[in-house]
């Protein structure tokens, strides 16, 4: 049984797409996922799938279920534990002097960016803030915080023409820890 994380885009932000997290976890369980739990209020769900479904099948099921239950069209992005571990290990900014995880975020993209758009984006620079696109993630390092940076979701969506959803570095690490604990329990190792 594989353990997954679903990141929902734009949930409970500025009074839009309001979903109670207890209702969201309940919906996942009703759709056959086990151990479904949420982390913070922004639509992060950690769950296991005893059905052996693919990421594509799970994504479609989650989006359809949310639409049917809550009447909302919300993109879901699903990653498994190996995907999440890769994100942790390929972060290009971990060795930045004075690295502070509260100044780091990752934007998960819903698709691969177009090479031409990516090349144009890579020509841009907004020091001291930095970013790097690796596969389907945008790693964002803002040493002075995110309050005044241009480098966040809307900026990257506009430049790459690919939707995404961002989470801060602490959230990503915490969610991976929860997912790994769930996976260990479901495999019987009791980690």
Strands, helices and their partners?
Layout (H helix, E strand, L loop, with lengths): L1 E7 L12 H10 L3 E6 L4 E6 L5 H16 L5 E5 H9 L14 E6 L5 H8 L7 E5 L2 E5 L11 H8 L3 E5 H19 L4
Antiparallel strand pairs: 1-3, 1-4, 2-3, 5-7, 5-8, 6-7
Helix pairs in contact: 3-6
Describe this structure in words.
With 191 residues, this protein is an alpha+beta fold. It folds into two domains: 2-80 and 172-187, SP0830-like domains (Alpha-Beta Plaits); 86-169, Alpha-Beta Plaits (2-Layer Sandwich), CATH 3.30.70. Helix content is 37%, strand content 24%. The model has no long low-confidence stretch (mean pLDDT 92).
In short:
With 191 residues, the chain is of the alpha+beta class. The protein is 37% helix and 24% strand.
- Level of helix content? 25-40%
Strand fraction: 15-25%
Total strands: the figure is: 8
Domain tally: 2
- What is the architecture of the largest domain at the second tier of CATH? 2-Layer Sandwich
Spatial shape: globular
Low-confidence stretches: none
